[in-house]
Design brief:
The complex is a heterodimer. Chain A is an alpha/beta fold. Chain A contains 13 helices and eight strands. Chain B folds into two domains: 27-133, Alpha-Beta Plaits; 139-250, Pectate Lyase C-like, CATH 2.160.20.70.
């Protein structure tokens, strides 16, 4: 049986899709058979971030409606054999996702995969609740600013009351905090909430802190999950987050301002 | 200061206001007049969920009785219901004779579709349970005297402790709402709203270890964050009513 992980946030633009792509790739690179599903029906993005937008034939909604089989719709990643992408439909809306349909697809995927990563749309409406309903684990992506923190908090409340695990009184969803776009310099100046501030408000296990990085936008534009950019701080931070998710003890990095040496200043490293 | 945050009942003129309100009440639909059988079935039902029936107003529905089934022994039935903690408030349907017998027991005669003559003393029913952070059955407002929440109360969640106290041993986020008919205790930062004495109990108090609340209220007397002195923020306090004035006192 696969473990179903939802990447969610409430607020938009905080890095859900970047995180979904990175975590899915990270898990797959470690040999776990992983599927990543785009739940953002109508605003399909995951295929771009994964760099498979030109190979999309069938999508998630086709599978739910029985117009295509799961094998027809799943796109195998060219860089990693253990990773498959199930793209969203761009021409439909979120109402095309039904609880039964989603449940059936996840059930079928569970037979052949170790992890299923669900990339949730923003908001707390139908699309987002469908993405999180069947989850076993939730990664709440939060930016260090008050509106994002409050929206994450709201989403955590929904996770604990409207998921299948909550409705069946099963063991609750495991919730993790992933702080993204973290800028230690701005935190030091008091312009941004610190890791401690966010953790105090959300009281969650910290899965990772992703520093604000130019590598993220570059990777998105190139259609390469940023975790594959092993040189970048964001790529390394996502690597650490995957390790922590799998139960390894890894110290947090990139929490303090990196002193730049003379040469790196000179060469813009 | 003396306004209720939800109703804004300021500038009182006269001793009372006359208002109409609709309540959802459990209905006991009699299918026979054998009070022994009723007693037996009722006992079994109450055993399943004793808290559910405690202090609950009920309506007796006579429309299920076949014509000519004989008299309903209202004194026996009312005694039975009261014995199980229920408060029989009225009857619905039935023959004029049955209704007269019910009226003799001070039961209201209720219309078929709506409450025509609500008894002034009939207690208000609890609002339907708001979203619970802990989806455990024991945390539901069916347990009327004490509610314990062990998980963080998140923004947008509401917890209502009907008929009693509410204790939270976790943080309460801003945008969350705690309500209790009795006291509220928060062992963690209180950043949301806390409304104690929801049904007007002026003796209710709010106790918290770390006051950062958006709003605190006791029996309709409230204060918003802006009106809470800086010196009290982040401090362990108790909040209570002292002659119609809401006091926030540091421990």
């Amino acid at each position: 049986m696969a473990r179903i992980i939802v990447i969610t946030s409430g607020k938009g633009g905080v890095g859900k899709t970047t995180t979904s792509a990175a975590l899915a790739m990270g898990l797959a690179q470690r040999g776990h058979r992983t599927a990543v599903i785009d739940f953002d029906v109508g605003l399909r993005n995951l295929d771009l971030i994964m760099g498979c937008e030109r190979r999309v034939v069938y999508d998630f909604v086709n599978v739910i409606n029985g117009e295509a089989s799961l094998n027809q719709a799943l796109i195998r990643d060219k860089r990693c054999d253990s990773l498959y992408i199930l793209p969203a439909s761009q021409t439909r809306d979120k109402e095309a996702l039904t609880k039964e349909g989603v449940g059936k697809v996840l059930e079928e995927l569970s037979q052949g995969f170790d992890f299923i990563v669900c990339d949730s749309p923003a908001g707390i409406e139908h699309g987002a609740t469908m993405a999180m309903y069947y989850a076993d684990d939730a990664v709440v992506v939060t930016n260090p600013e008050v509106s994002s923190v409050r929206d994450s908090d709201r989403m955590l409340g929904i996770l604990s009351s409207k998921s299948r695990r909550a409705e069946t009184n099963a063991e609750p969803i495991r919730e993790f905090l992933l702080l993204s776009r973290y800028d230690p310099a701005r935190v030091a100046n008091g312009e941004m909430l610190s890791v401690e501030d966010v953790q105090e408000i959300l009281s969650l296990d910290l899965l990772g802190v992703i520093p604000e990085s130019r590598a993220v936008l570059n990777a998105s534009n190139a259609g390469v999950p940023v975790i594959l950019d092993g040189e970048s701080d964001a790529g390394k931070a996502y690597g650490d987050a995957v390790a922590r998710y799998l139960g390894e003890q890894v110290p947090h990095r990139f929490l303090t301002v990196q002193k730049k040496g003379f040469f790196s200043r000179l060469f813009g490293g | 200061m003396a306004a209720n945050p939800s109703t804004t009942a300021d500038a009182p003129t006269g001793a009372f206001e006359l208002k109409a309100a609709a309540f959802t009440l459990p209905v006991i639909r009699l299918l026979g007049v054998d009070m022994d059988a009723v007693a037996e079935q009722l006992g079994a039902k109450v055993e399943q969920a004793p808290d559910f029936f405690h202090n609950t107003p009920v309506v007796i529905d006579l429309s299920g009785l076949a014509a000519g089934t004989g008299d309903v022994e209202f004194p026996l039935l009312v005694g039975l219901l009261r014995g199980y903690g229920m408060i029989p408030v009225g009857v619905r349907g039935g023959t004029p004779a049955q209704q007269a017998a019910a009226e003799a027991m001070e039961l209201a005669i209720l219309g078929d579709a709506f409450v025509r003559r609500p008894r002034p003393g009939a207690p208000e029913r609890a609002a339907p349970a708001p979203a619970q952070p802990a989806p455990k059955p024991e945390a539901r407002p069916a347990a009327p005297t004490f509610t314990l929440v062990t998980k963080p109360v998140r923004s947008g969640q509401r917890v209502y402790a009907a008929g009693g106290d509410l204790s939270v041993v976790a943080p309460v986020s801003s945008g969350a709402e705690l309500m209790a008919d009795g006291n509220i205790h928060v062992y963690g930062p209180l950043r949301g709203r806390a409304i104690a004495g929801l049904k007007g109990n002026t003796e209710a108090r709010i106790f918290c270890q770390d006051l950062q609340a958006e709003l605190v209220s006791v029996a309709g007397h409230y204060r918003v964050s802006e009106n809470i002195p800086e010196a009290l923020k982040g401090a362990p306090v108790q909040i209570y009513l002292d002659h119609e004035v809401l006091r926030i006192e540091k421990f």
